Amino acid sequence: MSTFLEHQNWRYATKKFDTTKKIATEDLNILKEAIRLSSSSYGLQPYKVIIVENPELRAQLQPAAWGQSQIVEASHLIIFANETNIGDDAIDSFLKNISATRSTPLEDLSGYGDIMKSNISKLTSEAKNIWTAKQTYLALGNLLNAAAELRIDVTPMEGFLPAQVNEILGLDKLGLNACLMATLGYRHIEDATQHYKKVRKSTEELFITL
Asked: How does pLDDT run across 118-133, given as a tens digit for each residue?
């Protein structure tokens, strides 16, 4: 079995974290870089990644996550917040980044910019928000894989009230919406979930080859 598959078999959605263990700065930086390098549609990365370390703030957020203990017990809490009304400004900023990174004249990128603006401007506000929210799941995938390699536990969470999280963190004022959470840390020895056999569809049931 490849090392990658060993990591995937090792990881699970941790229910109880060891509060005495904290993620080292070096490892956290690796996870942040894995998120930063994630793929996204057009490469736009239309979201912000909020790392909540402050224990008081996490205690405020816990009720908005239906009281789940991981919010306060994990070493770190990450909130993926999608841009709620992405427009031309975000695309122009992205093009400037391409130009600076690749030493490409900005005018040479105008055609690519026009394509993005044309396609995105056609979307309704609701469709834009759904689209930008979907991009965060690509970043989550990179986080899960990188963390498993470092033997750091991650629990993805959709079980929270975005409106409450937005209000607590002031995300509405920033044009952002909390759409996905992840708690990071190290499994507690008493977390029985770690001993459960992984349940997945069989290869025959899951895949269709045409």
From this structure: 999 999 999 999 999 9
